[in-house]
UniProtKB/TrEMBL annotation, chain A:
PROSITE patterns in the cross-refs: RIESKE
Gene3D superfamilies: Rieske [2Fe-2S] iron-sulphur domain
Enzyme Commission code(s) on record: 1.7.1.15
Entry keyword annotation includes tRNA-binding: no
Pfam families (alphabetical): Rieske
GO biological process: nitrate assimilation
EC category name: oxidoreductase
Record-level Gene Ontology MF annotations: 2 iron, 2 sulfur cluster binding; metal ion binding; nitrite reductase (NADH) activity
Domain of life: Bacteria
UniProt name for this protein: Nitrite reductase (NADH) small subunit
Family affiliation: Belongs to the bacterial ring-hydroxylating dioxygenase ferredoxin component family.
C-alpha cells in the first residue's frame, strides 16, 4: 500500500472534515469525536452531494443536500436509502493522517 | 457492572413496545427474558381482522421477528405460560417447570375474551377472538361449515362477522343492546352502520340475550337458543362480548387487582419491583383495550425501567376506527355527550353520512363520524390539544378545509387522496407507498414513516399530511403528538421545552455537558439535535456558551447557501434594500473575476451571486467588502422596505430609514428559525409587511406593528400587535418581541408557530403591558449581539477559521494510484 501523507490530525476539526484533491475527484477525510479518521469519495450516492460538508455524528455523516445518512466505515447509505460511496484506506500515525489512493468497495 | 435482570411475562404489543423503548434508552442495563404463551413472536394484534378477511397474511402482521429478539440479546421463551411468581425469591415459574430470576418484573399478560356463562360454552366450535390460533380456527371452520354466530356487536365482533362473511359463511350477530357499537357510536350512527352491514348480507339480532349453546351430540355446537325461545343454527360461535384483564398470575402472586392489575402513574404495581402495562393493567380505574394508550404506557414504563424516572402516564383520550374495508367510521372522546355539553350534528341518512361533535366550554371533547371520516384525524387532534374552537365553531362541522387555505400541512383530506398522489415532493413519495409501509411494517408514528419511506424527512412540510395518512390507516393507534410534546430526536426522551428549561436551570454551557447531564443516548447526538442544542446554548448563555461550528448545518458553517452541485450562493447585505453604484460595481467585478454563472435579484431586495466554489468564498467576501446577508441562516434575513416619505408621493413615514435602522439593530442575530421584516411607509403596504415575522406599516399618526406573518410553505397573515408613535418605539418593541421569541421558541419554530403555541396574549403581556420587562428583553438582545461579529469579516481575518474553506492538494498522485 502506498501511503500518502495528507496533513496533521489537528488540521481536521473534531467532527469535521477536509477535502483532498484525488485523481478521480474529491476525497473527503472525516474525523470523529474519538479521533478516528475515514475517507470516502466526496459524493453522496443519492445526488452527488459533497459529504465532506455534512454533519458528522458517531461514525456517520448526514449529507448536506437531502440528509441521507452515510456510514463512514463502509460508505453505505443507511436504510431505507440504498447506495454506497467508495472508501479509501486511511490511518493516523504519529499524529499524521495517511491516505492510500486505492478505492475499496463494499458496495453490493 | 453486573446487569440487572428484567423478566417480562407476556409477549404482546404493549410489552414488546416497552422493551423497544427501553432498549433505546438503556440498551445495556438489563438481561431480558420474555415468556410468551403463544408460539409466535410479537405480532400486530389489531390487524387480525384483515387477516381473517383475507386482506393480509400472518407473516405480514409480525412486528418483531425472531431475529429481532436475538439481535437484542433477549432470551425468548415461546409457548411457555408463567404459572407462578415467588416475589420473595424474585423468581417466575413457567408451566414446564422452568424458571427465571428477576430484579424487575413486567407483567403484560393482556386480556382474555369474556366467555358468556351459558350452558354449552365449552363445546367445540365455541371460541373467543383474541389471537392467531382463534383466527386460524375461524378460517378453517369457514371452509367446512356454513353457519356462524357472533355474540357481541362491538368492534371486534363486527370485524369477526365481516371476516367470516367474506370467507363465505352465513353470519348472524347477536347483540345485547339497542344498537351496534354502543361504546363508540350513538344510536343514529349505529343504525346507519347496521344497514350498511346488512347490505353485505350480515344478519343482526339486537336486544337479544343468549340462553344456551346446543350440542350436536358429538360435543360440537350446532345451534344457539335465545331467551325469547328462538333457535338458529350455528356451527361456529364467536364470543366477542368484551375482554377481561388477565390478572390470574398477578392475583396468584398477591398483587392487588381490581378489574385489572392496579398501577400508579409510573406503571408500577403495589410491589415496587413489579410493573404492569397493557390491557391487564388498571390505571386510575381504566383498563385500556386500545393500542394507542398502551404505547403511551410503554413509553412511561420504559422510562422508569431505564431508571430515568421522570415520565408520568396520566391517562389517554382514545379514538377508534372500525377495520372493515369500505365502512368509514370514527369516534373519539365523549361522543355521547353529557351534562354541560352541546352537540352539533349533521345527518344525511340517505347519503349515509352522519357527523356529531360534542363541545364543552368551547372545547371539542368528543365526536363520532360515519360515512365521511376524512376530518377524523383533525377533530381528534383538536380534542387531544384541548383547542378552543369558539372562533371556528361556525365551520367546525365542515372540517378543516372549510377554514380556508390549508396549504401543504395536509389536514385537508388524506383519506380521499388516490394512492398515486405524491405526498412528499422532496423525496417523491406517493400516498400508496406510505400506506403500504405503514401496513407492512406495522408503523405507528410519523418518525417511523420517515425512517421507512423518507417521506417528510427533508423539508418536513408534508409531515402533517403524513400524519393524516397515518391516522386514516391505523386510526387511534397512531402515535401523534404536537411538537411541543415530542422528543427532540431519537437521542433523547426530552422535548424541546424540557431541554430549554434544563439548559437554563442547570446552567449548561456546552454541548458535551448538556448531552452528558441530560442523558443523551448517543455520544455525538445527531443532525437533528445538535443544531438545536447549539442554538439553545448560545441563545441562553450569550458570551458564555461557545458556538460550535461542527454542530451547525453546512450553510451556517460555510456562511453561504449550498446548491445542488455543491457550489454556494453569496448574498451580501443591502441594508433596507438600499445599495449604491460603488457596491454594484464591486458586485459586477466579483461576478466577472470568479466567473459567477448567475446573478439574480432575490425576493428580499438584494442580489444573489450563484455558483461560487467553496474555496473561493473568502476571496469573494473580501472583494465584495460588504456585510454578510445571512441569507443562509436561522437568523435575521432581510428588512424589506418601500421608498417611503423621502420619495413616494403617498408616503407618510420614512420607511427606508426605519428599515435600515432595524436591520442594524438585528445584525448577526441567530434565532430559532429565519426572521424576516418589512417596513411600509403607508397603508398601501408595498413592502408586503403582512407576511413577515415582524411587519411595520407607517400611517400618518405613527406605526402599526404586525407579528407572526409568513410567506413560505403556508401563507400566514401577520396579526396586529400594537400601534406606536415613534420609530424609536418600533425599534424597542421589535427587539423585545424578537428576544422573547429567541428565548422561548423551539428550534425551527417560526414566529407564527411560536405564537400559535404560546398565544398572542402571552406575548402582549410580556412586551406591551410590562414596560420594565420590554426594556429588559431589548437589553438582553443587545447584550447577546455584542458578542457577535460579521462572520464573513471574521473568516477573512482569522486564518484558523479560513481552514474550513481550504482544500488539501495531493502531490505525486500518479505513483500512488494503485
Amino acid at each position: 500500500m502506498n501511503w500518502l501523507d495528507i496533513c496533521a490530525l489537528e488540521e481536521i476539526n473534531v467532527l469535521g472534515s477536509r477535502i483532498v484533491d484525488g485523481p478521480k475527484g474529491d476525497i473527503a477525510i472525516f474525523r470523529t469525536s474519538n479521533d478516528e479518521v475515514f475517507a470516502l469519495d466526496d459524493r453522496c450516492p443519492h445526488k452527488g452531494g459533497p459529504l465532506s460538508q455534512g454533519l458528522i455524528y458517531g461514525k456517520r455523516v448526514a449529507c448536506p443536500l437531502h440528509n441521507w445518512q452515510i456510514d463512514l466505515e463502509s460508505g453505505e447509505a443507511l436504510a431505507p436509502d440504498v447506495g454506497c460511496s467508495h472508501k479509501y484506506p486511511v490511518k493516523v500515525e504519529g499524529g499524521r493522517v495517511l491516505l492510500a489512493l486505492k478505492t475499496l468497495s463494499d458496495c453490493a | 457492572m453486573k446487569k440487572l435482570k428484567l423478566v417480562m411475562v407476556g409477549n404482546g404489543m404493549a410489552g414488546v413496545r416497552t422493551l423497544e423503548e427501553l432498549l433505546k434508552l438503556a440498551p445495556d442495563l438489563y438481561d431480558i427474558t420474555v415468556f410468551g404463551a403463544e408460539p409466535h413472536p410479537n405480532y400486530n394484534r389489531i390487524l387480525l381482522s384483515p387477516v381473517l378477511a383475507g386482506e393480509q397474511t400472518f407473516e405480514e402482521i409480525v412486528l418483531n421477528d425472531l431475529a429481532w429478539y436475538q439481535d437484542n440479546g433477549i432470551d425468548l421463551r415461546l409457548g411457555r405460560k408463567v404459572v407462578d411468581v415467588d416475589r420473595r425469591k424474585r423468581v417466575v415459574i413457567a408451566d414446564d417447570g422452568s424458571s427465571a430470576e428477576y430484579d424487575r418484573l413486567l407483567i403484560a399478560t393482556g386480556s382474555n375474551p369474556f366467555i358468556l356463562p351459558v350452558p354449552g360454552n365449552k363445546l367445540d366450535g365455541v371460541i373467543g377472538y383474541r389471537d392467531i390460533a382463534d383466527t386460524e380456527m375461524m378460517m378453517a371452520t369457514a371452509k367446512t361449515h356454513s353457519h356462524a354466530v357472533v355474540i357481541g356487536g362491538g368492534l371486534l365482533g363486527l370485524e369477526a362477522a365481516n371476516g367470516l362473511k367474506m370467507r363465505g359463511m352465513d353470519v348472524t350477530v347477536v347483540h345485547l343492546t339497542d344498537w351496534l357499537l354502543e361504546r363508540q357510536l350513538d344510536k343514529t350512527a349505529g343504525k346507519l352502520l347496521q344497514s350498511a352491514l346488512e347490505a353485505r348480507g350480515i344478519k343482526f339480532r339486537l336486544n337479544t340475550v343468549t340462553d344456551e349453546l346446543m350440542d350436536n351430540g358429538e360435543g360440537r355446537v350446532c345451534a344457539v337458543q335465545f331467551k325469547d325461545g328462538d333457535v338458529i343454527p350455528a356451527d361456529l360461535v364467536v364470543m366477542a362480548a368484551g375482554i377481561r384483564p388477565n390478572t390470574e398470575l398477578a392475583e396468584k402472586a398477591g398483587i392487588p387487582c381490581n378489574r385489572g392489575i392496579l398501577v400508579n402513574d409510573t406503571m408500577q404495581t403495589y410491589d415496587p419491583r413489579v410493573y404492569s402495562i397493557g390491557e391487564c393493567a388498571n390505571h386510575r380505574g381504566i383498563a385500556y383495550g386500545l393500542v394507542a394508550p398502551l404505547f403511551e404506557q410503554a413509553k412511561v414504563c420504559a422510562n422508569h425501567l431505564a431508571q430515568l424516572g421522570f415520565a408520568r402516564y396520566q391517562g389517554s383520550v382514545t379514538s377508534t376506527k372500525l377495520k372493515v374495508t369500505g365502512i368509514d367510521l370514527f369516534s373519539a372522546g365523549d361522543f355521547m355527550g353529557s351534562e354541560g355539553t352541546e352537540t352539533i350534528t349533521l345527518s344525511d341518512p340517505i347519503g349515509g353520512v352522519y357527523k356529531k361533535l360534542v363541545i364543552k366550554n368551547d372545547i371539542l371533547v368528543g365526536g363520532c363520524l360515519y360515512g365521511d371520516t376524512a376530518d377524523g384525524g383533525w377533530y381528534f387532534r383538536q380534542i387531544k390539544e384541548n383547542a378552543n374552537i369558539s372562533e371556528i365553531r361556525d365551520h367546525l362541522m365542515f372540517g378543516e378545509s372549510a377554514l380556508g387555505d390549508v396549504g401543504h400541512q395536509g389536514q385537508s383530506s388524506a383519506a380521499n387522496m388516490p394512492d398515486s398522489m405524491e405526498v412528499c415532493g422532496c423525496n417523491g413519495v406517493c400516498k400508496g407507498t406510505i400506506v403500504k409501509a405503514i401496513q407492512e411494517n406495522g408503523l405507528f408514528s410519523v418518525d417511523d414513516v420517515k425512517k421507512h419511506t423518507k417521506a417528510a424527512s427533508s423539508c418536513g412540510s408534508c409531515a402533517g399530511l403524513v400524519e393524516q395518512i397515518l391516522i386514516s390507516t391505523v386510526g387511534g393507534a397512531a402515535d401523534v403528538k404536537p411538537k411541543s410534546e415530542k422528543a427532540v430526536c431519537g437521542c433523547t426522551e426530552l422535548n424541546h421545552g424540557q431541554v430549554r428549561k434544563l439548559i437554563r436551570e442547570k446552567h449548561l454551557t456546552s454541548l458535551k455537558q448538556t448531552m452528558g447531564e441530560l442523558g443523551w443516548t448517543s455520544p455525538d447526538g445527531c443532525a437533528t439535535c445538535r443544531p438545536a442544542l447549539n442554538y439553545y446554548l448560545i441563545s441562553t448563555w450569550p458570551g458564555e456558551a461557545k458556538d460550535d461550528p461542527q454542530s451547525r448545518l453546512i450553510n451556517e458553517r460555510a456562511h453561504a447557501n449550498i446548491q445542488k452541485d455543491g457550489t454556494y450562493s453569496v448574498v451580501p447585505r443591502m441594508w433596507g434594500g438600499v445599495t449604491n453604484p460603488s457596491e454594484l460595481r464591486r458586485i459586477a467585478d466579483v461576478a466577472d473575476k470568479y466567473n459567477v454563472p448567475m446573478v439574480k435579484v432575490t425576493g428580499g431586495q438584494r442580489i444573489d451571486l450563484l455558483g461560487i466554489k467553496k474555496e473561493d468564498l473568502p476571496g469573494v467576501w473580501k472583494d465584495l467588502d460588504m456585510a454578510s446577508g445571512h441569507a443562509y441562516g436561522k437568523s435575521i434575513r432581510t428588512v424589506k422596505t418601500c421608498v417611503g416619505s423621502e420619495f413616494c408621493r403617498f408616503g407618510t413615514q420614512n420607511s427606508t430609514q426605519l428599515g435600515i435602522d432595524l436591520e442594524h439593530d438585528l445584525f448577526n442575530m441567530w434565532s430559532p428559525h429565519k426572521v424576516k421584516l418589512a417596513v411600509s411607509g403607508c397603508p398601501r403596504n408595498c413592502a408586503e409587511a403582512g407576511i413577515k415575522d415582524v411587519g411595520i406599516i407607517g400611517v400618518d399618526s405613527g406605526f402599526e406593528m404586525y407579528i407572526g406573518g409568513n410567506g413560505g410553505i403556508k401563507t400566514e397573515v401577520a396579526e396586529f400587535f400594537v400601534k406606536v408613535k415613534t420609530a424609536e418605539e418600533v425599534r424597542e418593541y421589535n427587539a423585545a418581541f424578537l428576544q422573547l421569541y429567541r428565548e422561548e421558541a423551539f428550534y425551527l419554530e417560526r414566529t407564527v408557530h411560536y405564537m400559535q403555541r404560546v398565544g398572542m396574549e402571552h406575548i402582549k403581556k410580556a412586551v406591551l403591558e410590562d414596560e420594565a420587562n420590554r426594556k429588559a428583553l431589548a437589553a438582553r438582545l443587545q447584550y447577546a449581539l455584542s458578542f457577535e461579529q460579521d462572520p464573513w469579516k471574521e473568516r477573512i481575518e482569522t486564518p484558523v477559521l479560513k481552514k474550513e474553506f481550504d482544500r488539501i492538494p495531493v502531490v505525486a498522485v500518479e505513483e500512488a494510484a494503485v
